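Final report, closing paragraph on structural work. Over the funding period we assembled a curated collection of sequence-structure pairs, and we close with a single example.
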Amino acid sequence: MKEKIISKASDLFLKLGFKSVTMDDIACEMCISKKTIYKYFCNKEVLIEESTEMVHKEVHGIIDTIVAKNYNAIEENFEIRKMFKEMFQATDTSPLYQLKKHYPDIYQKVMSREIEECNLCFKQNIEKGIEQELYRKDLNTDVYVKFYYSLIFSIKENTISERESTKLELEALEYHTRAMATPKGIIELENQLQKTPQ
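Its predicted structure, as stored:
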């Protein structure tokens, strides 16, 4: 039952917002009593923490699946972006923006977890792109990881609308890729941009 509550709460939080969803809403959606929820979670904050952890695991599980498909480095980034777009398309307000605004302590925990995982993911992608001659050999990988991370999370945290955030992330991905790409990489980037709906 605990997992079911976390799963339903995650759906509602992402669709309607962390602030606006109440324990009553979750109980009503699941046709259970509020008392049942409080049996597992002493308050809404604990439920939000567990929900964000579940979403984090889900997202990184999907990223691992995409990486395992062995796309080239540029296509891999576009596939990951597509996954995020699909996952959060029902959301009006950016989930990270809401967390930062209404639950700053939980937001800090989420971010410290994300920094490590995302940096590793970005770093592996850049190393793969250099190997495939899609990215320049002379790149300072750590610096480019920091640049991209700062760009993406600045958009996520400071853009209220999820639709606007998704649009800006595509611009950031193009900007990031162009900055690193070899002529061969630019051809692949143009190819990916043509296939990507705005």
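The mean pLDDT is 90. The chain is about 80% helix and 0% strand. We thank the funder for supporting this effort.
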